[in-house]
Structure formats: C-alpha cells, structure tokens
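User: Fold this one for me? It's Glutamine--fructose-6-phosphate aminotransferase [isomerizing].
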Amino acid sequence: VKGGFGTFMEKEIHDQPKAVADTLLGRTDGQGNLVLDELRIDEAVLRSVDKIIVIACGTAAYAGHVAKYAVEHWCRIPVEVELAHEFRYRDPVVSEKTLVVAISQSGETMDTIMAVRHAREQGAKVLAVVNTHGSTIPRESDAVLYTHAGPEVAVASTKAFLAQITACYLLGLYLAQLRGNKFPDEVAGYLEELGKLPEKIQHVIDHADEVRAVAEAMKDASSVLFLGRHVGYPVALEGALKLKELAYIHAEGFAAGELKHGPIALIEEGQPVFFIVPTPRRPVLHNKVVSNIQEVRARGARTLVIAEEGDEAVNEFADVVFRVPRTPTLMMPLVTVVPLQIFACALAGAKGYDVDQPRNLAKSVTVE
Ligand code: M6R
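Assistant: Here's what I get for Glutamine--fructose-6-phosphate aminotransferase [isomerizing].
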C-alpha cells in the first residue's frame, strides 16, 4: 500500500507529479481549449460572476490563497479567501453573482460544510474543489471540479494540496476563456506550461537528498520561520504548518514584506529562516526578497533559501540553497512547496515521530 516507501507521507509526496498530471488530464479538447462541462453551472451565470470567495481550512485554504493571485490576474474578478469557520459566523456580503469555491480534500470538513450551506442560503453558487468522490461537500454544492490526487492517507496533506492548486488554475483559466479575458492562444500557452509541471515536480523530488540531510541536522531546532512574497507567501504558511504538524516545532510563516513591521525582532543568532524566492525574471519581487535575506543574515539568522535554478543573486546571503526548476511565477508554488514538505517529513522522521499520524490530529475534522 505504501508503494515501497516507509510511510504514506513519503509515498504521497512521490505521488505528486501524477496527482497534478491526473488533475489536468482530459480537461482540454486537444486544441488548447479547456473543457469543463462537468461544472454544470450555466455559462451565463459564470460570465456574470462579480466576486469569488474561497472557503476552506488549513492546507486547503492555502491552496485558495495561491488561487487568488492567479484568478485575479487572469480573470480580473476580485477573489477573497476566507477560513470556512470565520466566513460562517460573520455576515458575509454574498449575492447571486458571488461564486463561492469550497476547497477540501476529504469533502467532509464540518467547518467547510457549514460554510457551504451558509453561502447557498444567501443565494451564492457554490463550486466544490474536492478530492473524495461522493463526499458531502460536492453533494451539497451546485457544481464540482474534482481533484484527481487519489486517496490521501497521511494526516498531513501533500498531494491533495498540489492537486487543489492545479484545479484552481484550471478554473481560473476556464473563467478567463469563457469571459474573454484571455485569448484562446494565451490559455493554450498557460496550459502548455502547466503540462510541464509534473516533470518539474519530479525533478525536485529526485534531487532532495540535501533537503533531507539539512532537516536531519536540524532536528533539535526549537523554532523555524518561513518567509515568502506574492505566491511564495501561502507557500511559507504551508511550510510552517507542515513543520508544526509533523515535527511539533514552533514554526511561523510570514509575508516577507511584513519583516520590518514586526517579525524581524525575532531574529537572533542561529535562528533558522526559510525564504521562498520569486523568479529573478520578476525583479520587483525578487530583489525585495533578496534584501530580506540579507537583512536577517546580517542579524545572525541561518538562511535556508528556495530559489530557481540559475538565480545566483541569492548565493551570497544563503547558508543553504535548494533549487527548483524555472517555472512561471504564478505556478511556482507547485515546485517551491515540495522541498518544504520533504524537510518537515525528514525532520519529524529524524525525531522518531509518526509522520502519518501526528499526535492530536485527525485526517478529517468532522466536528465544528
Ligand atoms: O479535508 P480538508 O481539505 O477539508 O481538510 C482541511 C484541513 O483540515 C487540512 O488541510 C489540514 O490542515 C491538514 N492536516 C493539513 O496538513
């Protein structure tokens, strides 16, 4: 069942190229057009959507956070991302033109189910992005876009996260195609780039020995920080969550731009800090993160940097660099999160912890 791996978590990390490929499979017409007939929401309704609210919890909410950057850029529709339990108990502004996207691996998370019901009561259309067929959330939604990650057994989510992000890209491109925000050849170009991702993810997995070695050497760390900007920000949050869940180490993710607004006070000699660095092809984003690395390094932090191949600007300020293949900015989370998953899994393993079934956690949280 574990495919020759010692744990489900390792197996599921290795399943990720397939999870992404399978989520893309069969959703184009072969001529670069997206075909998402399965959505069963009237095209006129999708054309009239004036706001999207993503509701989800935990890792699924971070997938939604990545989706916000892509969908707003491609479709020019405002996207809010909200934790399902917060959405449910306030008075959200929702109308018939609001598309609520509920993201969930299990489809059984009670907080998300309650938020779906609440959204529909307010007249919103709900589209579920779910991995588990026949679960409650798709049954209670207007439409469903399944992620095809296969069963995820380890409590900490990995392959479902990548599949959720992939499905959200498809949704964003589909809306852009439908609403005429993007020309067909532009959509085809993005789809072609997406099609290259499974191979790139595989490359990161195949070159992770150093990540594991660094993780094992850090097994006595008491706190690790994660910083990212733009789509690297939700990746930082996810890296911190994985480390908390699996290794029971205090970990926090921040938007790199927040550093000087507070978190830099935490930096002292030897404090490990991960950086998720944007591509140097986006100098505005890239240069700012490189300065952040420099700033914390000057205060004695140990800098662990995830950067694109060929990005030499980080070398001077990085104690360790983990490389990822060159990838379009909006799609970078699919490669940059992988070293962080492997890091958390290896560090927890080095501490002798059960990575498949961490203490106090359940795979699916079926109570509010
Ligand atoms: O099944 P869901 O995707 O709705 O679950 C949401 C969260 O409970 C889940 O992502 C949780 O945060 C995981 N333990 C993360 O690894």
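One thing worth pointing out: The chain has a mean pLDDT of 96.
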